[in-house]
Amino acid sequence: MTTTTQSQVCVVIGASHAGINLAFALRREGWEGNIILYDIDKEFPYHRPPLSKAYLTSEEGTEQSLLFPKENYDDENITLKLGISVKSINRNDKSINLSDNTVQSYDKLVIATGARPFIPPIKGIETAQNLFPMRTAEDAANIRKAFNASTKKRVIVIGGGYIGLETAASLKKLGAQVVVLEREERILARVTAPIMSEFFTELHQSNAVEILTSKNVISIETKNDINSVICDDNSTYEADLIVVGVGIKVNTELAQEADLVIENGIKVDATARTNDEHIYAIGDCSYHYNPHYKTNVRLESVQNAVDQAKTAAKAICGQENVVYDTIPWFWSDQFDVKLQMVGLSNGYNDIVTRKEETKNSFSTWYFRDEELLAVDAVNFAKAYMLGTRFIKSGQLINKTKLSDTTIPFKPNSFI
Amino acid sequence: MAKITFITSNNETIIAEGTSGSVMELAVKNKVKGIDGDCGGVCSCATCHVHVNEEFWSAVGKPSELESDMLEFDDNVSEYSRLSCQLKVEEVPDGLILKVAK
Asked: Closest by alpha carbon to B51, among B5, B82, B96?
């Protein structure tokens, strides 16, 4: 690197997993100038995954799960401006307009605006009592508070995705009556194979969570703080608390208004740079190329937020030959089950399921012909780790041996 | 209060003191290169892999089943491998020496 960054300013919009990891990675990579992050969320930056899990079932606040300790921000001279939103990006004079009517100029700008919960246009949803999405610490705190205040503790979760199912499991542990209403014919339909949907349906049912599919919620009627959730098959469910987990909307508005290229998310290159050479976009809001799968993707995950942040930091500090090239991974915890996923299963045409001798341990291997695309491992981290290794190396696998549980689970067993 | 020495892959030594939380959190706080703890400490990402100095191995103890499953197929696993998110500062021996895995 020949130029000095000492007098430069890197401004980051969004102070969650992507933005915060970018800030600390910038310091590691040698950025000497100012780093200023803005976020509308007033909470000190925290890990989001625990919100639907440990956070809900404890009395603790987010101070137990900060992304980095407070003193590290001082040590690294990273400035957090919380509770302030960005109104617009002015690419011509490289500045942003803020909700407190000030203007901040930048040399490099990073958009890490993520996504917000999609609230479906259901009749009566705006007047429903104790209806919350699950995305921020405030959402989780609201759910916890409404739950504790309720006597009957009847919970309806709209949407059988990971967020909805994790929240259902956590509230069940606290003694709720929980019904999950899923519009599709099976839960987790968008993200996993039918065998995984069946497993999680049984897991929830055996823990007395009701999972109802093909339930399209069309209206919510609220009287005396009690909600009646009505589906298009005329079934009605009463709820003291409603959690909405039907997906997200990507926060691309600022980028769009600044005429950055939008394509499913904010379009970026291999270094996470947008079509403006001074502006980068990382995390949930970025639409990027994945070299391994040779396709453009937009990923909603901690791994993508953190790894893309690290890549962008290198590029911003002037390193050459920087390429964002990772195998995506995800996880979910529900009841006593740990699900670990690696890879992208999109386009699979064959599945191998391997059930281990151990109770409740199995793995689902997704193939496109002979190519291993992804692995879902249930209570079986070995499959997750070995799957990661096989996907990375492009190892061809003997599917017959893989499905044979009399063959020990070792790398050489399946080659 | 435990005093822990971290040796990074480029042989930098960082001595950190802590009273609570996980060893991974202590390492992140002290900017130990190579310990990221991306998943927040739930044994999901293996980005906090350390090798326990042999003389402390029996005092630190073996990993749980989940943790050892995470480690078994890691390229840099050794017989003294642990994930530092699973080590509690108040339970590890004072003076512990950990080598950060590559």
From this structure: B82
**CB pairs below 8 Å between A and B: how many?**
51
With beta carbons less than 8 A apart as the criterion, state whether A356 and A384 touch.
Answer: no
Interface test with B, best of A20, A24, A27, A47 (most B CBs within 10 A): A47
CA distance A243 to A209: 14
Bridge partner residues of A362 (DSSP): A355, A378
Indicate the domain borders of chain B.
2-100
Would you give the DSSP letter of residue A143?
H
Q: Which residue type occupies A18?
A: A
Q: Nearest-CA neighbor of A414 among A358, A357, A372? A: A372
Q: What CATH number has the domain spanning B2-100?
A: 3.10.20.30
Confirm or reject contact between A413 and chain B (CB < 8 A).
Answer: no
How does pLDDT run across A64-113, given as a tens digit for each residue?
899 999 999 999 999 999 999 999 999 999 999 999 999 999 999 999 99
Spatial separation of the C-alpha atoms in residues A340 and A375, rounded to whole Å: 8
Distance from CA of A309 to the nearest CA of B (A): 12
Its sign, for the CA torsion A127, A128, A130, A134, is negative
Place of tokens 């608390």: A241
Residue A110 near residue A275 (C-beta atoms within 8 A): no
Q: Which tens digits make up the pLDDT trace of A236-272?
A: 999 999 999 999 999 999 999 999 999 999 999 999 9
* Selection from A188, A95, A130, A142 nearest residue A378 by Cα: A188
- Best mutation target, B20, B42, B67, B75, to test chain A (most A CBs within 10 A): B42
SS3 of A274-331: CCCCCEEECHHHEEEEECCCCEEECCCCHHHHHHHHHHHHHHHCCCCCCCCCCCCEEE
Three-state SS sequence of A2-23: CCCCCCCEEEEECCCHHHHHHH
Residues of A in contact with B25 (CB under 8 A): 69
Return the ∠ at Cα A235 (arms to A230 and A241), rounded to 5°.
50
Q: Which amino acid is residue A305, in one-letter code?
A: A
